[in-house]
Structure formats: C-alpha cells, structure tokens
C-alpha cells in the first residue's frame, strides 16, 4: 500500500523511481480506508535527505500511511529553505489538537550540548509530553533516542573519547519480541555520534528492555515495557554513502576525525561502500508499523 505525502514534495520523484507506491492527498481522499497517521519530527539539518530516507521505509509495508512533517518553531533551520519548510512542514501549535498513530523523532547533530542547552529543548519536551496521550507509539532515532531516554526515564548521555562512526555488528537479546521478529542473530547497523548511553542504566531500569547491543557501539535498540517508546541509538535509515559524506564534511571542517570503521571496502575511501543493513532497516520499520502502531492504535480516537 502507498504512503500519502504532500503534493510536490521533492522526495516524490525519487520514491517513484525506486518503485515505492506514492499517493498524493487528492487520490487518498477517494479511498474508503483508515490510513495510519504518522508525524515525523525532523530535527536533522538536511531535512530533504532525511525525508527520503524515512519515506522509503514507511512506504514499504502493506499499510496506507499518511505523513505529516513537524519542524521546531523555536529553531531556525540553516540547511533547508524557508519555502520548503513553509510548504511541507507544520509547527506544534498547528498539530497539537490532532491525534497520531505513530511519531518519529529523528537525530540531530547537537550532542555537544546538554539537553537543556538546546534552543528548542522546551518545545521538544512539550511535544514528548503531549505524545503520551496523543500518539500510540513513538520511534526515536539517535539523538532523539537519547533525548527520549533522558526525558522519560532520566537516563543521561555521556561523551565518548572520539566519534563513533562506522558499521558495527549487533546481537539480539530476545527473538520473541515483536520489534525484532525476523532479525538475524547478528546484524549490521550504522552509528554516527559523539555520545552514548549506559547499558547498565538501561538494564537496571524496570521500565525498559534492551533488545539489541554491540560490543563496540553499546546499547542499540531499547523498548519501553509499555511499548510506547522505541529508542534506536544508531542510524539504520542511512543510505550507503551517508557516512562517507559525513566523513568528507568533517574533514573539510578540519576536524580530527577517524575513517568510519568497517565501512569502506578494504578501508579505502576511494571505494564505494556497500549497504549491508538495508534488510534489517526495512524489517524494523515494518515491525514497528505493524505490531506497535497498526495493531495497537484505536480505529477511531475518542
């Protein structure tokens, strides 16, 4: 089934090129079906790229999905045009009276800041508080996962000695949990961050389940026992070349940065990296939409 996205969204052409079924708002209105309504809180600087990465995953399930994009009113985006934001994004004040079946909070390259130092922290905490009664399930990615763990469970991040960047192997702790149903015992996933959360803090919190971790990258997939919150500390949604572009960007800034680990073939930056995590990315998103959104959300909100 298709994803329903705003007309003229730049990602539409690429999604159709990839044979992902896209439906615009006019056609969607003609279908007698209860679609899932998903709100994407896009905190990433290159918002159009993140839109494409997430939409191709949300459009690869049997469910019809309506997508809404949310931006921070208290933050001025520097890498996305104002016209794009004005056309395709809403603010919290414009959506707070609505209910959503699912919500995604993306990462953000602001790990050097304490949470309270982030200029839109108060606005984001208002959204996270609102989600408790207005969203069925929330999927939090990278910094968004750290923010969720901090706000909802009091688990803070801590700085790493150097940037964690590369592709790392992860193990699944419990194959019976629906979120990781169908996962291999060992699978790859990208990480790109300067901070981490304590596995010990997660494991001792009775409200949380640590479903997947890595010896090198630490805690990866965390599920709240009430199944309301899912925290993914890496970037399964990344394209094959995303880490390469981040590495080139960091070098151009003069940062003392290491080559992403386990990423370039033969560790040669002139060779094109391969996507070795794609199938598990699609599986995670389809499991989330099926088991934690579609099967849990009310057909009609009160």
UniProtKB/TrEMBL annotation:
It comes from the Bacteria. The keyword Amino-acid biosynthesis applies. The record marks 111 as: Important for acyl-CoA specificity. InterPro entries: Class_I_gatase-like, HST_MetA, MetA_family. Gene3D superfamilies: 3.40.50.880. It is found in: Cytoplasm. The record marks 192 as: Important for substrate specificity. Substrate binds at residues 163, 192, 249. Keywords: Acyltransferase, Amino-acid biosynthesis, Cytoplasm, Methionine biosynthesis, Transferase. The active site is at residues 142, 235, 237. Its EC number is 2.3.1.31. It catalyses: L-homoserine + acetyl-CoA = O-acetyl-L-homoserine + CoA. PANTHER family: HOMOSERINE O-SUCCINYLTRANSFERASE. Pathway: Amino-acid biosynthesis; L-methionine biosynthesis via de novo pathway; O-acetyl-L-homoserine from L-homoserine: step 1/1. Belongs to the MetA family. Transfers an acetyl group from acetyl-CoA to L-homoserine, forming acetyl-L-homoserine. This is Homoserine O-acetyltransferase. It comes from Virgibacillus sediminis. GO terms for molecular function: homoserine O-succinyltransferase activity. It is an enzyme of class 2 (transferase).
């Amino acid at each position: 089934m298709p994803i329903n996205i705003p007309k003229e969204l730049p990602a539409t052409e690429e999604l159709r090129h990839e044979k992902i079924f896209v439906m615009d708002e006019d056609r969607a209105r003609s279908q007698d079906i209860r679609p899932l309504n998903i709100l994407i809180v896009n905190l990433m600087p290159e918002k159009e790229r993140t839109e494409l990465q997430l939409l191709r995953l949300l459009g690869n399930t049997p469910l019809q999905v309506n997508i809404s994009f949310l931006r921070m009113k208290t933050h001025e985006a520097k890498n996305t045009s104002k016209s794009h934001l004005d056309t395709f994004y809403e603010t919290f004040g414009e959506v707070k009276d609505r209910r959503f079946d699912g919500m995604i909070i993306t990462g953000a390259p602001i790990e050097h800041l304490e949470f309270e130092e982030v200029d839109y922290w108060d606005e984001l905490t208002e959204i996270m508080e609102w989600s408790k009664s207005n969203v069925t399930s929330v999927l939090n990615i990278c910094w968004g996962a750290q923010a969720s763990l901090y706000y909802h469970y009091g688990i803070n991040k801590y700085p790493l000695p150097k940037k964690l960047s590369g592709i790392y192997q992860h193990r699944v702790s419990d194959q019976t949990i629906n979120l990781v149903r169908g996962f291999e015992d060992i699978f790859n996933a990208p990480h790109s961050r300067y901070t981490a959360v304590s596995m010990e803090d997660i494991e001792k919190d009775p409200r949380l389940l640590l479903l997947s971790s890595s010896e090198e990258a630490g805690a990866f997939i965390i599920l709240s026992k009430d199944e309301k919150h899912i925290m993914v500390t890496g970037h399964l949604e990344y394209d094959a070349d995303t880490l390469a572009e981040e590495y080139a960007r960091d070098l151009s800034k003069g940062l003392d940065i290491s080559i992403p680990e386990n990423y370039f073939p033969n560790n040669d930056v002139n060779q094109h990296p391969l996507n070795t995590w794609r199938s598990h990315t699609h599986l995670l998103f389809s499991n989330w939409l099926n088991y934690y959104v579609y099967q849990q959300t009310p057909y009609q909100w009160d």
